[in-house]
Amino acid sequence: MEDPKILETIACREALALAEDLNLTHVIIASNSKQAIADIKNGARGWNGSIVHEISLRATLFRCNFCFEGRDANTEAHNLAKFSLSRGPGRHVSLGQPHDLICIPPVVVFDE
Fold first, then answer.
1. Which residues contact 84 (CB under 8 A, 6 or more apart)?
2. What stretch of H or E contains 64?
3. pLDDT tens per residue, range 14-63
4. How far apart are CA 30 and CA 46, in angstroms?
5. Taking Cα atoms as reference points, which of 43, 69, 50, 55 lies closest to residue 14?
6. Would the N or C end of the chain have less CB density within 10 A of its end CB?
7. Looking at residue 100, what DSSP letter applies?
8. Burial of 29 (0-12, 13-18, 19+ CB in 10 A)
9. pTM of the prediction?
10. Per-residue CA distances from 49 to 1, 36, 40, 54 (Å)
11. Where are the domains of the chain?
12. How far apart are CA 27 and CA 89, in angstroms?
């Protein structure tokens, strides 16, 4: 499956799943697909209707806003989406390289 609208709708669903896993209460989900955002906002019943329905149900758990953001403003997300097409089915988590310990400030504990 490589239909961009369906893939963008799935990405929005996955964003909500991640927000739920992280116990977030306020989320803004941006997509570079105007049609996917319109389908979510209007509760469309097309090819991505079952995904839109799931998003609608899950979105009630949050203060949630879906918005369109042009591709030039979200190149990282676009590149990640292109990369994910090369992965097999299922969910994959990639947290990138571990942080450089030099950049993480040490925790200071004071004894009283």
1. 92
2. strand 63-68
3. 889 888 888 888 999 988 889 999 999 998 888 888 999 999 999 888 89
4. 21
5. 55
6. C
7. P
8. buried
9. 0.65
10. 15, 10, 9, 9
11. 4-88
12. 26
Give me the torsion for CA of 25, 28, 33, 36, rounded to 10°.
30
User: Tell me, what amino acid is at 19?
Assistant: A
Burial 33-61 (b: 16+ CB within 10 A, else e): bebbbebbeeebeeebeebbebbeebbee
Classified as helix, coil or strand, 32 is: coil
Distances (CA, A) of 66 to 49, 59, 62, 76, 106: 16, 10, 12, 18, 37
CA 69 to CA 63: how far, in whole Å? 19
Strand partners, 66: 29
Q: How many CB atoms lie within 10 A of CB 85?
A: 9
Q: Which residues have a Cβ under 8 Å from the Cβ of 47 and sit 6 or more positions away?
A: 3, 5, 6
Cβ-based neighbours of 2, under 8 Å, separated by 6 or more: 85
